[in-house]
Design a protein that fits this description.
There is one protein chain. The protein has 132 residues and is an alpha+beta fold. It has one domain. The protein is 34% helix and 39% strand. It is built from 3 helices and 5 strands, in the order αββαβββα. It has a 5-stranded antiparallel beta sheet. Helix 1 runs parallel beside helix 2. It is elongated and about 65 Å long.
Amino acid sequence: MLLELTDEELAALLIDEGSSRHEVFGDVADVNLYGFKHRRTLAGTAAQKMIDAGLEPTVRQAVEWWCFVFVPVLPLDTRIVASYRDLLPDGDDHGRSIPTVMDWLQVLAHAMLVIIGLAIVAIVVVSAITWT
C-alpha cells in the first residue's frame, strides 16, 4: 500500500486523527513497531503539510509485534509510520501510523533475526555455564 499511495494521500491519512493512531516508540510495552522497509520522503505540499502537523516528512513501513521483554513473538499488523519531529516529555520518540497489508517477507526477516539472536544468546549462556 505504501508504494501505491501518492504523497498527498499519505500525508492526509497520517495527519487525520480519525484514520491514523498515535504510537510511542521505545516505551516499555507488550506491543512494539519494528522495521524501516520502503522508507520514503514526501515532497512538495505533502511534505509541508506533514511538517506543519509536527511530523517528519519521511514515512516507513513497520511490523507491529506482540513482544515478550522486547523480543518479537507474534506479528499483529503492518503499518505505515511517520515520526513526530519532537520527543515526548519523558524522552520517547512518537508518531502516527496507518494500517496496511501484512508484509510476510518483512515478518520473516524479523523472525530470522530473532531466531539468530536467541541462538547466539543460548550459545553464550551454555558456554558460560559449562566452562570449567
